[in-house]
Amino acid sequence: MTDTPAKPILITGASGALGRVLVKALGAQGWRLVLTDLAPFPDAVPAGAQFIKADLSDGVTMLRLAEGCGTIIHLGGVSVERPFEEVIGPNIRGLYHIYEAARREKARVIFASSNHSVGFHERTESLPADTQFLPDGYYGLSKAYGELMGRMYWFKHGVESVNVRIGSATAEPVNARMLASWMSYGDFSRLMERCVLTPTVGNVVIWGASNNSRMTWWRDDARAELGWVPVDSADPFAGQLAAAVSGDPVEERYMGGGYCSIEYTRGAPAPVWGED
After folding, report:
1. pLDDT tens digits, residue range 192-249?
2. Where are any strands of DSSP class E within the chain?
């Protein structure tokens, strides 16, 4: 069993796939959890936890839910590429409410960012954590904005943040791209534990991927400071998935995969960042 945080943890998006995985993992260790989502929680609520249905757009309720919490694990919001008007409410205004709650409670924010904030970088690149944002859609744009909001709250208010740029967090990898980007549920849960328990984090970025030998896209993040080492790997799936490609030149060229192809009207794939 890991150490138990002194204060409760607020988890938004608790009813989603990653939220349910995390609630199960942390609840089994006896952590005190406050769970919220717009959708009902489909599982048994662990002992010591409570679920409250709420909308991220309700700032007053977010402030109330965060009362007394030491960390907010923010998984809530639109989690896939959607039209701008569907993204802006939960992912922009909702995130503001989370950071205001964190500021008032002097809580840490663990922000579920995404590889889609840098999705239009090419797969031949190797990106440090401070790389140029190149979002591949409105969802990725909201994640880039979210990281920038966290930076502002750090420099202006001292609110700590861990921005986890999640790759492909699924039960198993399902295509060739995920041989690089896959993050196991176990590695995800262990990372969340370290994000909460590390005494001081400041404002940092973690690339959210498991120990995949093909994961050469992302490097130089803050995992050493957190003491997180991924232990799972997509490598055992390489034989069955190496040929599982889409045939779409845009999807296969860029790190963001299929999100890059959604409503893509440029024609030929865009040049590498910085090319004329």
Report:
1. 999 999 999 999 999 999 999 999 999 999 999 999 999 999 999 999 999 999 999 9
2. 9-12, 33-37, 49-53, 71-74, 108-114, 161-166, 168-169, 182-183, 203-208
Is the pLDDT reported for residue 1 higher than 90? no
Cα–Cα nearest to 81, from 238, 216, 259: 259
CA dihedral 175, 180, 184, 187 (to 10 degrees): 180
pTM above 0.90, yes or no: yes
Distances (CA, A) of 195 to 73, 79, 134, 149: 9, 21, 25, 18
User: CB–CB of 113/164 below 8 Å?
Assistant: yes
Instruction: Judge contact between 166 and 139, C-beta under 8 A.
Output: no
If residue 57 lies in a helix (H) or strand (E), which one and from where to where?
A: none
Report how far apart, in Å, the C-alpha atoms of 229 and of each of 4, 129, 207, 251, 256 are.
Answer: 20, 16, 11, 29, 24
Kindly list the structural domains of the chain, giving each domain's residue range(s) and its CATH number in brackets, ordered by start. Answer: 9-261 (3.40.50.720)
Q: Residue 274: its pLDDT value, please? A: 55
Which CA distances in Å does 59 have to 38, 66, 82, 102?
14, 11, 23, 12
DSSP 12-40: ESTTSHHHHHHHHHHHHTT--EEEEESSP
* pLDDT at site 36: 98
Q: What is the pLDDT of residues 51-91, one digit of tens each?
A: 999 999 999 999 999 999 999 999 999 999 999 999 999 99
Structure tokens at 144: 């880039």
Q: Which active-site residues does the annotation give? A: 139
Cβ–Cβ < 8 Å for 192, 10:
no
Q: What are the angstrom distances between the C-alpha of 30 and each of 2, 75, 110, 115? A: 10, 20, 20, 31
